[in-house]
Write a structure and sequence with these properties.
Shape of chain B: globular
Number of helices of chain B: 20
Largest interface: A-B, 30 and 31 residues
CATH architecture of the largest domain in chain B: Orthogonal Bundle
Number of domains of chain A: 1
Strand content of chain A: under 5%
Number of domains of chain B: 2
Distance between the termini of chain B: 28 Å
CATH class of the largest domain in chain B: Mainly Alpha
Oligomer: heterodimer
Structural class of chain A: mainly alpha
Largest sheet of chain B: 4 strands, mixed
CATH superfamily of the largest domain in chain B: Cytochrome-c3 Hydrogenase, chain B
Shape of chain A: globular
Number of strands of chain B: 14
Largest sheet of chain A: none
Distance between the termini of chain A: 44 Å
Number of strands of chain A: 0
Helix content of chain A: over 70%
Strand content of chain B: 15-25%
Number of helices of chain A: 11
CATH topology of the largest domain in chain B: Cytochrome-c3 Hydrogenase, chain B
Helix content of chain B: 40-55%
Structural class of chain B: alpha+beta
Radius of gyration of chain A: 19 Å
Order of helices and strands of chain A: HHHHHHHHHHH
């Protein structure tokens, strides 16, 4: 009984942890970018204030919008949230892991993206359609890279389950040729999937240059809050995968409380450092011309394919 | 002031220009550029010639072909009360002769139309349409006779520049639709942007026809900011006119008020004190600097290069704080007046400006290194938004945009005025015509501006900063010209018997440069539009008075 109660507590803890920590990491990135621009920037709690503010506001909905537009924020939020709950953050073996494996995570994110894209088309504004078309171009390139990368990890671990994959990393260590190739590939994918520089610019007001922002331009109030929150969850989720697969240190291998505490601290620090790194890199470079994005993601695909070849031929 | 000799052909025009050049050369015995600096603000400057309306098409084409003149400005004035018609004015710049050729013809009141030259000289397109909107004079043979300045909700037959228009009345709004040019074909779709934009941007509507991301055609729909400034100028005193000119467009405060003041000074044949000339140049160059730095930062912002944007913003802020320290206004308002300056500045302040030059040179160097050391930035700038020399020439493009497309035009050198007549400049040009060329050119010009400020302050002597008794007067008219940050600004003023403004026409560089923007976008992709637009740096308020 006691074991079950602990299991439930850890499960709920995992859900609450990803949900509540996500806005912190996006705020942290804004803070770091502000630092590079010699500004103070918003406080670390700004992400929470924004979501709270938007949740209280009424949503303005175009009279041309169909049910798709109104449902999308809920679909996007729940799909991303479920995906985020599946990915182990502070403990390797999660009771929530039973929901699905790595492939489910990819397709939950795919579902969210699909709905965002058709919601962008739904209101019939010129920007929404433009954003949807660009997003689909980018994700149709990014998805094969993610899948290939996951196959490499799954082949190494003998399991598509994240618990198995991370256990494998813990056992063998990450300094293997296949993993070294996969790390930059996953970073590029994380940047592309979350709409950050150099693929997209989350801070721009220029509609014509937007990708992700163009699709959600029509959203307001609580709808926007959910979409923004889902965006933060997606970023946290992708960074958590990278952190725990490539740097599995500190993650709780048992359900003992001290290990879990260390695990929570470790994952916060790891994701925080990755967020700082990405924000610093974002500050240093300019956004790519839209048609250069395939070259960048193509590079990631080559890395992932090489990793796959190395893995399956047994070189690494 | 108009030449009385009868004009029949281009030869007569050349003779008239040479005669006037001879007069000036005779007076000062120096090259024309220097002579006028001493006489009255501007080399040979304006040469006003009366011509028959029927000769206009032939003469205009010959001026462009044989004298390599470029059309700068067309305007018209309602003179039915005393001249039985409308006067039509064509201003051509002829850099080889340092002359702004002003052709004046009369349109009879009973036949309110004039021959359109927009087909042969595309630079005339918008100018002729503006005249049609504001005065009801029809450009006969214009290829695109749609409304330009007044939108379709303005009733037909109401012309705000006619004398019989009561500017106090409330004009009823009517229904009407604007016909956009349609591009048809498989996969062509339209993207409508604006006039209300995200962010703090002035209103403008952009209609893209594109296939996928590739831009096939861009149609501009501007003029949402019409405030009736030119009409508002009527009856104002000379000083009030300068205050209004300052407020036409925020970042062209000094340029517009200097252009206006120089027109007044040329009407009254007043030479302003040397100290005022030097300080005016300092203000003009400070304005150019903060304008160019805003552009450089804007280009970095548009490609999400945040470090470059932040550094440019910091440097621009330093310039604007300096402006505030000098004048009490970040845009240098309230300094320029006909006859010189409204007030002098302390030697302490002059010293502060001088000591700023060295700091700024360092900062500019660092900013340029930051911007152009990143391959990601260079990749976005190069080959983006190329404006060919041919298009730039045909459309009468001015300022940095023209210079980045390989056209050596600069009002400060071509038609020297004020301090620039004493201090000859080299025109900086670049030849690629892309965003990279325009951004690099602006870096070079910021450095050049610092040099000019240094030279202007180097030998400055104390003394009066304002002169001129403008009270005694008879009717007169003249043109004032200035190189604003965006290019040549022209201001034409006519004074009535009581030393009040009878008519005023202002043309800022944006009016000439806007029509060139779509040509720079051919073959570019939609997400590159904001960057190209930023590199052109066009004003909405200055464009639409």
């Amino acid at each position: 009984m006691e074991f079950l109660a602990q299991k439930i507590a850890i499960g709920i803890g995992q859900a609450l942890f990803v949900l509540l920590s996500a806005p912190l990491f996006t705020s942290l990135m804004k803070k770091v970018k502000a630092h590079f621009q010699c500004r103070f920037g918003p406080g670390l709690l700004q992400g929470y204030y924004d979501i709270w503010k938007l949740l209280k506001k009424d949503a303005v909905i175009s009279e041309h919008a169909s049910w798709v537009f109104k449902t999308t924020p809920y679909v996007v939020f729940s799909a991303t949230f479920i995906a985020a709950v599946i990915v182990p953050s502070f403990a390797v073996v999660l009771p929530t892991a039973g929901i699905g494996d790595a492939i489910i995570v990819i397709y939950l994110l795919g579902l969210a993206r699909f709905f965002t894209a058709i919601a962008g088309l739904d209101t019939g504004s010129s920007f929404g359609g433009m954003g949807s078309s660009r997003e689909m171009m980018i994700s149709s390139l990014a998805e094969p890279v993610t899948m290939t990368g996951l196959f490499v990890l799954a082949a190494a671990a003998g399991s598509t389950d994240f618990g198995g994959i991370i256990t494998k990393s813990l056992v063998t260590g990450h300094v293997q040729p296949a993993y070294l190739l996969l790390f930059p590939a996953f970073l590029i994918i994380a940047v592309a999937e979350t709409g950050r520089v150099p693929v997209d610019n989350p801070a721009t007001h220029l509609e014509l240059t937007m990708v992700h922002e163009a699709m959600i331009l029509e959203y307001t109030g609580r709808h926007l809050a959910l979409i923004e929150w889902a965006g933060a969850l997606k970023l946290t989720l992708l960074l958590t995968i990278i952190a725990n697969v490539f740097f599995p240190w500190g993650i709780a291998e048992s359900m003992a409380w001290p290990a879990v505490m260390v695990g929570i601290f470790a994952i916060t620090a790891k994701v925080g450092l990755l967020a700082i790194g990405i924000a610093a890199m974002e500050s240093m470079i300019a956004k790519l011309r839209l048609f250069r994005v395939p070259e960048l993601i193509g590079g990631a695909f080559v890395l992932a394919m090489l990793a796959l070849i190395i893995r399956t031929t047994g070189i690494g | 002031m108009a030449t009385t000799m009868h004009i029949r052909s281009i030869k007569d025009i050349v003779r008239a220009i040479d005669n006037k050049a001879g007069e000036y050369a005779g007076k000062a015995g120096k090259r024309p550029g220097e002579a006028l600096g001493e006489a009255l603000g501007g080399a040979l400057g304006e040469v006003l010639i009366d011509i028959e309306l029927s000769l206009l098409p032939k003469l205009a084409l010959d001026i462009v072909d044989e004298l390599h003149g470029t059309l700068q400005f067309i305007f018209a004035v309602d003179e039915r009360s005393h001249n039985n018609g409308f006067s039509l004015h064509h201003i051509f710049g002829i850099p080889s002769k340092h002359c702004l050729l002003h052709l004046k013809s009369v349109i009879p009141a009973d036949a309110p139309e004039f021959p359109s030259l927009a087909l042969q000289l595309p630079a005339m397109n918008w100018h002729e349409r503006k005249i049609a909107d504001m005065l009801g004079l029809t450009p006969v043979g214009h290829p695109d006779p749609r409304r330009l300045v007044l939108h379709e909700d303005w009733p037909q037959g109401v012309y705000p520049w006619r004398d019989d228009f009561d500017s106090k009345q409330k004009v009823p709004r009517v229904k009407g639709t604007y016909e956009f040019h349609r591009i048809e074909g498989e996969g062509v779709f339209e993207i409508a942007v604006g006039p209300v934009h995200a962010g703090i941007i002035e209103p403008g509507h952009f209609r893209f026809s594109s296939v996928g991301e590739k831009i096939l055609y861009l149609e501009l729909r501007l003029f949402y900011k019409h405030r009736g400034i030119e009409r508002f100028m009527r009856g104002r005193s000379l000083l009030e006119g300068a205050l209004v000119a300052e407020r036409v467009s925020g970042d062209e405060t000094v340029a517009n008020s200097v252009a206006y003041s120089q027109a007044i000074e040329r009407i009254f044949k007043v030479a302003i004190p040397e100290r005022a000339q030097r300080l005016r140049a300092v203000f003009l160059e400070l304005e150019r600097m903060h304008c160019h730095l805003a552009d450089i930062g804007g280009a970095a912002t548009d490609i999400a290069f945040s470090i470059g944007a932040a550094k440019a913003a910091l440097l621009r802020e330093k310039v604007m704080s300096l402006c505030e320290m000098v004048s009490g206004s970040r845009f240098l308002r309230g300094m320029i007046a006909p006859g010189g300056l409204r007030r002098d500045i302390d030697n302490e302040v002059i010293h502060r400006i001088s000591s700023f030059i060295e700091i700024a040179l360092c900062d500019v160097k660092e900013l340029e290194a930051t911007t152009f050391s990143r391959s990601s930035v260079i990749d976005r700038f190069m080959k983006t938004g190329v404006l060919s020399t041919e298009h730039a020439l045909n459309l009468g493009v001015v300022g940095p945009v023209a210079r980045a497309s390989g056209i050596a035009v600069d009002t400060r050198t071509d038609y020297p005025y004020g301090f620039y007549a004493m201090h000859p400049l080299d025109i900086i040009t670049r030849f690629d015509g892309d965003v990279a060329a325009r951004v690099r050119l602006k870096f070079d010009e910021v450095r050049q501006s610092l040099g000019i400020i240094e030279a202007a302050l180097g030998a400055i002597k104390s003394g009066a900063v304002r002169t001129g008794d403008f009270a005694v007067s008879s009717r007169g008219q003249a043109l004032g010209w200035v190189e604003a940050p965006r290019g040549m600004t022209l201001c034409w003023v006519e004074i009535d018997d009581e030393a009040k403004i009878a008519n005023c026409r202002l043309r800022t560089p944006s009016f000439n440069n806007w029509p060139a923007l779509p040509y720079a976008l051919h073959g570019n992709i939609v997400p590159d539009f904001p960057l190209v637009n930023k590199s052109f740096n066009l004003s909405y308020a200055g464009n639409d008075l």
